[in-house]
Every structure is written in structure tokens, then in C-alpha cells.
Amino acid sequence: MNNTEDRPLIVQSDRSLMLDVHSPSADSCRNSIMAFSELVKAPEHVHTYAISAISLWNAASAGLSAQEILARLDSWTKFPVPENVSSYITDITSRFGKLVLVPGDGTPYRLEVKDPFIAKVLASDKTLSGLLHRTDEKDVFSVSLYDRGTAKLELIRRSYPVDDRIPISAPENVPMKMKASLRDYQSLAVDSVLGDMGPGTGFGTVVMPCGSGKTVVGLGIMERLRTRTLILCPNVVAVRQWINEIKAKTDIPEDIVGEYSGEKKEIRPVTVCTYQVLTYRSQKTDEYEHMKTIMEGNWGLVIYDEVHMLPAPVFKITAELQSVYRIGLTATLIREDGREGDVFSLVGPKRYDIPWTDLSRKGWIANAYCIEVRIPLPDDLELPYAVAQRREKYRLASTNPRKETVLEALLAKHKGDSIIIIGQYLDQLKQVHKTTGYPIITGSTSNARREELYSLFREGKEKVLIVSKVANYAIDLPDASVAIQISGTFGSRQEEAQRLGRILRPKKKSSFFYSVISKYTVEEEFSANRQKFLIEQGYSYQTREIG
After folding, report:
1. Are residues 369 and 510 in the same domain?
2. Average pLDDT of the residues of the chain
3. Any bridge partners for residue 116, and if so which?
4. What is the predicted pLDDT for the residue at 107?
5. Fewer beta carbons within 10 angstroms: which end of the chain, N or C?
6. Closest CA to 190 of 221, 231, 213
7. What is the C-alpha to C-alpha distance for residues 418 and 478, in angstroms, rounded to an integer?
């Protein structure tokens, strides 16, 4: 029990938790509550966490009871826990463990339902009849091997999480050893996923800021498991970065590492693949032609890099790859389509999360300053903007020609720094390329040329790169210290996190993230959503007006 004077937490009736970060026991409190809550925002003085069904099931899957959760809250909160919050925690947590999936005598799995009423509800749900099959045993259903993931997904959508106790198999030993030790928080992330390697462990999602070494965590998990591994990535550049990291940081022989992309089709004991190749098909009515090849790979571990980007068709393969270790890596679990629950069901619950600002304070990622520069529309665009439809308004505001003057000034201010210019509209980016002469990377740039330019940038031979949204994800540009965003994707918080992440690799000097927007326009409205997200992550955000 803590002293009343040193209770840094307030539990509110909307299930939000307010943590006073200036309290001497703030770190201890945070470590205690992170097991059953999710960090929502982390500005300077008070961090906000939220208790949700997903966060409580995360905790329950790790063995935390409702009584322990309430005891922890009672020991840290200044005021009594609201009764509705206590009831919610007790009710929601109790649902975990009511449905337990265990091995059957034969091929099908057994879904044992501990609550007779829930069993009746499931039996009467016609949409579940093709997934859950009645047996001679009361309150026990059979689930086929290939329906395991889909059944879990459908059940959690009905607020019935499944405690999956099917042992995970590792079919083939692939010896490997890392060449360097993990940082303390990276080791914690590995331990959080693998635990004691018993039932209910070996799958889940790790949330860590860009630049903090998510790839290294993936390699640490590979080292512990030493099994056939499939790594899924957003693009070819990310695939090759993974392969380079494997070569540089482990002793895995090159001849057992394969690339499976649009350019190469190598299936090896460690195979790195793009999401795009899995979802490729000649016509919409065709089957996904590469899915079968991947499914038959006899994998022991699947790593989903940038798991928040998991395309809907890949949920199918994920649903069927349930008998293997599954790890999701991401800087933010935000999905603009709201399918975070699907990630929980199929890849696994969030096992590890650490605030961006914590790592920044310790020097593991760069200290970043976020600055929004607001400029007016030119006089000749005011009328076209006023009469335009909303989407056209956004395009006119985003491609405001006055942004080029601001860009020129920022380039001069940061001359000699490694700078990324980021935009959404290709015509705008091409104009910047024409005006400045700096190299440009867009969706039409060949993979060979992209890799060449990224290498030149890393080596300091190119100091400025102009990039479209193709550079949002999984691109390792460790020396970038300035990002200038001249247009973005509406109010995407996910995109803002990824773009900021391009400049967060640890370095001796601070990083700067500029966002240039047209004031009094819809762009300002969308920017407010992105700005709010960054402030909630703990970054200082300044605004400057020109004209």
C-alpha cells in the first residue's frame, strides 16, 4: 500500500486513468497499470491511460485477475475507484477463460465453454454454425484446424475472447546467434512475448517507437526460438533492410535467407516477404496465387512488421497460421479502419508498449521538435477554394504554391543537415524536384533506384531526399534529422507517427519535424487531428504563422 501523499493516479468514471508524471512514484505506478491499460496520450504533466475490453483481455491472458487489477488501482489512486469502473473490470475480465481452446483427441480442436448460458448463445448463432460444431459433450464444440483463427476472430467480435491453449510447434531447428546484446527494454519486449514458452505464450504484438529497434526485437525472438521464420513487410525496400540486418547482426548463413517479392521467389528457412506479393492476383475474381506457397512453408515463426498495416486479405493467411509463433511489430497500433481487435485475435494481444518520450529521455531515440508553419492561400486561389468540393479544397490547400517559399527558407536554415521532404501529391513533389534539383522517390521509382538513393542518403552523399508516401513505412534512414511535410493524408495519425519516426533514430543533435499548411482551410482542420496525436505522445508542438 502506498502513502496517501504519494498516490499519483486518478481513476475516472469513463475508465480513463490520469497519471501525474511529476510524482516520485510515477514510474512504479505506470509499470503497475500498463499491464491492463493502454497509453492514450503523454503530454508534459499528466499521462492518460485507458481501460478497455482489449486491454483487460491482454491482462487476463497474462494471468492477471480482476481482483489483482482492482487491488493495483486501489493502491495508487488518490480517490476511490468509481463503482461502474470496478463492475466493468470484473465483468469484462471474467469473460476471458470462459472459452478455452485445447487440443482434441483427433484432428479437430476442442472449444470448451465454461458458462452454459454462453454455450447456448453460441449454439444458437447461425453465423457461427460453420465454425463451431456441436459434439456429444455438453458445452464443448469442435473447431477444425483451418477454422481456428477465423473462429477466434468471430468470437471476439461478439465480446467472447478465446483463451487459446493449443501448444505451438517449431518444426525445424535453424541455429542462430546475435552478434551483440539487446538493450534492456528490447530484452523486456522479447520476454513479454515468449514468457516461459508455455501455453498461451509465443504470440502477441510489440509496440515501440520508430528508431527504437523493433527489428532487433524481432531478431532477438528469432534467436530464442531458432526455427523456420517468415517475415512479412510492407515493401521491397523493407524486405532488403531486414535481410541486411539479419546479415549484419546475426550469424545466420546467407544461403538460408530468402527474398520472396515481386522480383524474387526464394523460399528458404528464413524468408522475408512483402504483403503485396501475398495479396497479388491478376483479377479480382482470382485466387491469391502466392498464398498457397507461403502456407506450405512449414513455418515455426511468423513476424508481421508494421502489423498495423496488415492488409485485409492477409488476415486470411494469418487466420490459418495459428499453430506457429506469431509476432507483430509496430510503432502504433492505430488503424484508421478500426481493426485493432482483429490484430488481437489473429496475431496476438499487445504484450509490450513503451512511451516514446521515455526512450527519448534516456537517449535511445532523438529529441524531436514539432513545428507547424501556417501560411495563407494566394489571392487568386481564394475564390476557387471557396466554391470547390471538400476533396478539391484539400488538394488546393495542400498544394498551395506559397509552400515553396517556406520550403526554400527551411532548407536554407538547415543547410548541411540530412533532410527529407515529404508530400502526398506527385505534381507538387515533381515541382519541388524541378525547382531544387534534389532527387525524388515516388511509387514509380524502381526498387533499384530507391535503394541507391537511400544508400547515398545514409552515406551523406545526398543530403536531401524528396519522397512520397512510399517512404512512410519501414525505411531506415538513421541520419535524417529534419523532416519537412508539405502535404499529408487528411488527418491520418498513423501516417504522422510514421513520418515523425523517420527522424527519431538516436543522434547527438535534436531533430525537427515541420508541417507546412494553409491556414483557414480544411488542411488546418485535418492538421489539428495529427497535431493532437503528437502532443498526446509527449512532443512539444509549436505553431508559426507567416503572412
Report:
1. yes
2. 83
3. none
4. 66
5. N
6. 221
7. 10
User: In which residue are the cell numbers 481456428 written?
Assistant: 148
* Long-range CB contacts for residues 319-323, cutoff 8 Å, separation at least 24: 319/148, 319/149, 319/150, 319/153, 319/346, 320/146, 320/148, 320/149, 320/295, 321/149, 321/295, 322/148, 322/149, 322/152, 322/164, 322/166, 322/346, 323/145, 323/148, 323/166, 323/168, 323/169
Q: Are residues 323 and 452 in the same domain?
A: no
Cell of 509: 543533435
Mean pLDDT of 308-337: 70
How many helical (H) and strand (E) elements, i.e. helices and strands, does the chain have?
Answer: 21, 23
Q: Is residue 222 situated within a structural domain?
A: yes
| Residues 350 and 380 reside in one and the same domain | no
Cβ neighbour number for residue 470 with a 10 Å cutoff: 16
Is 176 part of any domain? Answer: no
Q: Are residues 75 and 118 in the same domain?
A: no
190 and 150: one domain? no
Most confident by average pLDDT, 58-72, 276-290, 477-491: 58-72
Q: Are residues 298 and 429 in the same domain?
A: no
Please provide the DSSP assignment of 18-79 as one string.
EEETTSTTHHHHHHHHTTT-EEEE--SSEEEEE--HHHHHHHHHTT--HHHHHHHHHHHBSS
Instruction: With respect to residue 172, please indicate whether it lies within any of the assigned structural domains.
Output: no
Instruction: Give pLDDT tens digits for 136-181.
Output: 899 999 998 778 888 888 898 888 998 888 877 666 789 899 999 9
Give residue-wise pLDDT tens across range 256-298.
999 998 888 999 999 999 888 877 777 766 676 777 777 777 8
Q: pLDDT per residue over 433-442, tens digit each?
A: 999 999 999 8
pTM above 0.85, yes or no: no
Mean pLDDT along residues 22-26: 88
Residues 293 and 271: beta-carbon distance below 8 Å: no
Cell numbers at residue 108, please?
A: 479437430
CATH number for position 271: 3.40.50.300
Helix crossing, 447-458 with 236-249: angle to 10°? Answer: 50
Identify the pLDDT of residue 31: 79
> 460 near 486, Cβ under 8 Å?
no
Cell of 119: 454455450
Do 86 and 105 lie in one domain? The reply is: no
Cell of 65: 485477475
Give the whole-angstrom CA distance, residue 254 versus residue 320: 29
Q: How many domains does the chain have?
A: 4
| 169 within domain boundaries | no
Please, which residues bridge with residue 303 across strands? 231, 327
Range of the domain at 519: 362-545
d(CA 302, CA 222): 10
Task: Identify the residue with better confidence: 203 or 378.
Answer: 378
The answer, yes or no, to whether residue 469 has pLDDT greater than 80, is no
Q: 259 and 322 in one domain?
A: yes
